[in-house]
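Hi all, posting the design record for the shared folder.

TITLE: backbone redesign
STEP: 1 of 1
STRUCTURE INPUT:
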């Protein structure tokens, strides 16, 4: 039986909090990315001149997308989808 994304987050994350509430240490612990995902994140960060806060939010959304697909690591498609949700502002 597959767990919901929120159930996965509560089970995995420190203090059983959702991805949206992760602090910097929590992000470092649970938002492991594949190399290609890191590359996509860096390219979008530089291209769109996102702030550090925006970059952090993209990582959290990408982690949630990966959770919805029951994936251990964040891949490039998860980051690209998170960037698309962010828009170009």
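Okay, here is what came back for every position:
SEQUENCE:
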């Amino acid at each position: 039986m597959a767990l919901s994304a929120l159930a996965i987050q509560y089970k995995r994350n420190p203090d059983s909090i959702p991805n949206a509430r992760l602090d910097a240490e929590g992000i470092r612990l649970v938002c492991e990315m594949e190399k290609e995902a890191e590359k996509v994140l860096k390219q979008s960060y530089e291209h769109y001149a996102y702030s550090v806060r925006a970059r952090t939010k993209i990582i959290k959304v990408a982690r949630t997308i990966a959770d919805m697909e029951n994936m251990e690591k964040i891949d490039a498609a998860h980051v690209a989808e998170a960037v698309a949700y962010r828009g170009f502002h």
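COMMENT: Helices lie at 5-12, 24-30, 35-48, 52-68, 76-86.
Let me know if anyone wants the other runs.
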